[in-house]
Amino acid sequence: MPSTGTSTPARVSTMLSKVPEITLMFWVAKLLTTGMGETTWDALDIAFDQYIAVAITGTLFVASMVIQFVRRSYNAWAYWFAIVMVSVFGTTVADLVHNDLGVPYTVSTSVLLVLVGLTFALWYRVEGTLSIHSITTRRREVFYWAAVLLTFALGTAAGDWTASTLHLGYLPSGIMFGVLFLLPAIAYRFFGANAIACFWLSYILTRPFGASFADWFGGPPGRGGLALGMDRVAIVMTVIIVGVIAYFAISKVDRPGSPDADTVGLGASAR
After folding, report:
1. CA atoms within 13 A on the CB side of 213
2. Is there a domain that residue 5 lies in?
């Protein structure tokens, strides 16, 4: 592929990459965190006063960012703790905008889509690349996590928009987003589409894909759910996520530059 301008200006201090290799298990973990974030916020919102729930998620989100930013290299526990809390907090923000401020999902989805586009545009203008394998400066790390947070919020709003505003329900929404999630990989593999663009499209779509299925498992029958309970679904997903992260930490298969990484599809070229 053509050069994406990954050189680092001399005035910006460099660091080791703090983003994992993109493996098949990366996508599995990412999808699990999206569902876990959706159901965890819903469970907290039910179990506690809303202000207490917001304080809990906000505090843990800030703590996760501090832990991630103070590290000088990739650590599976720190990185995925940050991803989990971005997922929970992104859901919090999207739901509060709709439920408390009364902003329709159509509006919030549209606004977040614009914000995501502007973030990527600014990131590319400043750094010359959107590659996740170029996150080797503090500035690029800030861009990366800003994009991650906004894409999570966008995915949450988009999933609620299709399930509620368009009245598709949880399961049809999940199936639709699952198909859309696979399309960028197909476009890259068979039609030579830009790897970095395809990666970020799939990344954005993991949120409504995973969250729609999590809502289907835990949500009420009136909205097409199986009513297994948001708290139960959140606990089960949390246990599975901990197991996946433990696998990453022990095997180090997702360590940046690992020769043993089971790199697949977009991860191999999203540089």
Report:
1. 17
2. no
Q: Does residue 10 sit within a domain?
A: no
Instruction: Specify if 128 maps to a domain.
Output: yes
Which domain covers residue 65, as residue numbers? 24-268
The sign of the dihedral angle between the CA atoms of 227, 233, 236, 241 is positive
C-alpha 211/C-alpha 159 separation (Å) is 7
Q: Provide the residue-wise pLDDT of the chain in tens; the chain has 271 residues.
A: 333 344 444 344 567 788 999 999 999 999 999 999 989 988 888 888 888 888 999 999 999 999 999 998 899 999 999 999 999 988 888 778 887 888 999 999 999 999 999 999 999 999 999 998 888 899 999 999 999 999 888 888 898 899 889 988 899 999 999 999 999 999 999 999 999 999 999 999 998 999 899 989 998 887 778 989 999 999 999 999 999 999 999 999 998 875 554 444 455 445 4
What gap in Å lies between CA 148 and CA 83, rounded to an integer?
A: 8
State phi, psi for 153 to the nearest 5 degrees: -65, -40
The Cα–Cα gap between 243 and 241 comes to: 5
Question: 17: how many CB neighbours lie within 10 A of its CB?
Answer: 19
- How far apart CA 187 and CA 237 sit, in angstroms, is 30
Number of separate domains in the chain: 1
Query: What predicted TM-score, i.e. pTM, was given to this entire model?
Result: 0.87
